[in-house]
Design a protein that fits this description.
Elements (H helix, E strand, L loop, with lengths): L2 E7 L13 H18 L4 H7 L3 E10 L8 E11 L3 E9 L6 E11 L5 H10 L31 E7 L13 H18 L4 H6 L2 E12 L8 E11 L4 E9 L5 E13 L4 E2 L4 H9 L5
Antiparallel strand pairs: 1-3, 2-5, 2-7, 3-4, 4-5, 6-8, 7-10, 8-9, 9-10, 10-11
Helix pairs in contact: 1-4
Length: 294
């Protein structure tokens, strides 16, 4: 049985140029829901500190199924779907309580530096549910993303879409970069990537055409911390007549080490009709010339 783990309402500042909730906040909802789920199983933040356990996210898979608009209510219900000696996979179901359909799903793999306490494992096993079909990967997970360094990235065709500094307000209580802001960096740089692929994002916006992401899979490789320098390198892995599969690589700039990498499924979006658009033959020829060499 899924348990309530998070609730809020959508604010204006959380919405993007499509007038709907930006992708980074679904990750934040899942992040906070994960903490409440673990607490309900007897291993919340205070219990983790008391036990000396280091519990972190290994990856997040998100499917964006329906839009949230300003002032929409948000509820998250959660349960474990897999429990191992040192890992747990959490399923988060995100809904607008005014609607019956699921708005989004988050599947988070959580890892611990030591075996889970026995009492926690027993509770987690008892609380397990089956992962619904709607939450399973659809267009991500097939790519073998390499462990690149920043110096190696340009040779694959990846381009820089963001160069920033990690600020303290973007970090958690351990001064580590929050997952939400990793997704935010990918989202913030997306117009640069679309421009690189030959789509003038400013002109698209004037025609009331946007870009949306319908699925993402992010792998957390090593934490970034407040004060670190970050660079995001991105590119096009593959495409169809309606779908683009992007890859994002987040690096620590001084060492060139890989901090995270992601697959993102994007589409062109008619902001008036609220429908997905088809790429022209000219678009597809241009996209083929810009595919990555991973």
């Amino acid at each position: 049985e899924l348990k309530p783990t998070f609730s809020t309402a959508v604010n204006t500042w959380q919405c993007d140029e499509n007038d709907h909730l930006n992708v980074q906040f679904y990750t934040e909802f899942g992040h906070e829901a994960s903490a409440h789920l673990l607490a309900g199983l007897g291993l919340g933040p205070r219990a983790q500190r008391a036990s000396g356990l280091a519990v972190t996210a290994a990856d997040d898979h998100v499917r964006y199924l329906r839009e949230f608009r300003v002032v929409d209510a948000v509820e998250v219900h959660s349960a474990p779907v897999e429990v191992g000696e040192r890992h747990l996979v959490a399923y988060h179901e995100i809904r607008n309580p005014a609607e019956t359909a699921i708005a989004a799903t988050v599947r988070r793999r959580i890892v611990c530096d030591r075996p889970w306490p026995e009492a926690f494992r027993v509770r987690a096993e008892a609380a397990k549910v089956a992962l619904p079909e709607v939450a399973k990967p659809r267009s991500v997970g097939a790519l073998a993303l390499p462990d690149l360094t920043l110096a190696q990235a340009p040779a694959t065709g990846l381009i820089e879409i963001g160069r920033t500094v990690i600020t303290p307000d973007e970090c958690d209580e351990r001064a580590e970069f929050l997952p939400r802001h990793q997704f935010g960096r990918y989202s913030d740089g997306a117009p640069v990537l679309w421009n690189h692929l030959g789509f003038d994002r400013s002109a698209m916006q004037e025609r009331q055409e946007g870009s949306v992401v319908v699925e993402m899979l992010n792998h957390y490789r090593q934490p970034l911390r407040a004060g670190d320098l970050a660079v995001v390198m991105s590119g096009l892995a593959t495409f169809t007549s309606k779908v683009l599969v992007f890859t994002h690589f987040l690096f620590e700039a001084e060492t060139g080490a890989l901090a995270a990498c992601a697959e993102a499924v994007g589409m062109k979006f008619d902001q008036n009709a609220r429908k997905i658009m088809t790429f022209t033959q000219e678009d597809q020829a241009r996209l083929a010339a810009r595919k990555l060499r991973l």
